[in-house]
Amino acid sequence: MNTARCARDDLGGRTMMTILRRSLPLILLAVAVAGSANAAQSWDGTWAGGWENGDGVQIIVAGEKVIGVFRGGDYPDIQKSQLSADGRTLTFAWAGGDAVLQRTGERDASFTLHERGKPERSFLVHRE
After folding, report:
1. Tens of pLDDT, residues 56-96
2. pTM
3. 67 within 8 A of 78, measured Cβ to Cβ
4. From CA 23, how far away is CA 4, in angstroms rounded?
5. What is the per-residue pLDDT across 31-65, written as a single tens digit (0 to 9) for each?
6. 94: part of which helix (H) or strand (E)?
7. φ, ψ dihedrals at 32, nearest 5°
8. How far is CA 12 from the centre of its chain?
């Protein structure tokens, strides 16, 4: 019995090993790209920052929605919270203000604060 002939398939004499060796890197790349595209990082948790400038904020996120914000010694009622399609930006609003969180890293985000009668302020917040 010719073992070389047994190890070959019907595709023009190429062995299955050659096909696998050439295909495996492409398959792994496709899986990695699909996984990273579908696995947006979750915002869920508590984010805080800005205390050193007197603009301190604590933001509580659950289910990819802002459910609580501690600002100026108070927890205003959140009226709206929306996650962008790409999952990198979270916007939310309360009576008298709104804010934008934009992810800059796994545990870091840029926070832009808009409050009626005050200038826009931006600073970094971090997941606690």
Report:
1. 999 999 999 999 999 889 999 999 999 999 999 999 999 99
2. 0.68
3. yes
4. 21
5. 443 334 444 799 999 999 999 988 899 999 999 99
6. strand 89-94
7. -65, -45
8. 46
